[in-house]
Amino acid sequence: MGQWHVKYTTAGAPFADAFMQWHSDGTEWEMINQPVLGGNICMGSWKTVDQTHVFRHHMGWLFKDGAYNGYFTENETDEVARDGNSYRGVNSTKIYDKNGKFQVELPGTSSAVRIAP
User: Fold this and answer.
1) Sign of the four-CA dihedral 97, 73, 108, 36
2) Which residue has the higher pLDDT, 27 or 11?
3) Do 21 and 29 form a contact (C-beta atoms < 8 A)?
4) Burial level of 105, CB count in 10 A (0-12/13-18/19+)?
5) Which domains does the chain have, with CATH numbers?
6) What is the mean pLDDT of the chain?
7) What pTM was computed for the model?
8) Which residue, among 87, 82, 77, has the nearest Cα to 113 in the 3D structure?
9) 107, 94 in Cβ contact below 8 A?
10) Which helix (H) or strand (E) holds 7?
11) Each residue of 56-71: pLDDT tens digit?
């Protein structure tokens, strides 16, 4: 739980940074440094897998030049450090067009550090 600074990679290359909030009710919210007109706010849910791992399901709308163009889903499994102040994960993002037709799947990673209040 708490607020995090997350760094994402896709295909081994840096993709984006984000600010994420994990909530005690199992929901999460993210603002990523992607263009606003492309869609940069998304949300999801998470659950505990075991003492050091959590699973997150995440969704967001996609836009092209400000017009709705589809959506994505992201599934991620994270390993939380023993001190609870960082995590690393692997994820898979699936892109769908505005008719719900699957387009592509992108594997990636994440690393995050807790932002102190």
Assistant:
1) positive
2) 27
3) yes
4) exposed
5) 2-115 (2.40.128.120)
6) 94
7) 0.90
8) 87
9) no
10) strand 2-10
11) 999 999 998 889 999 9
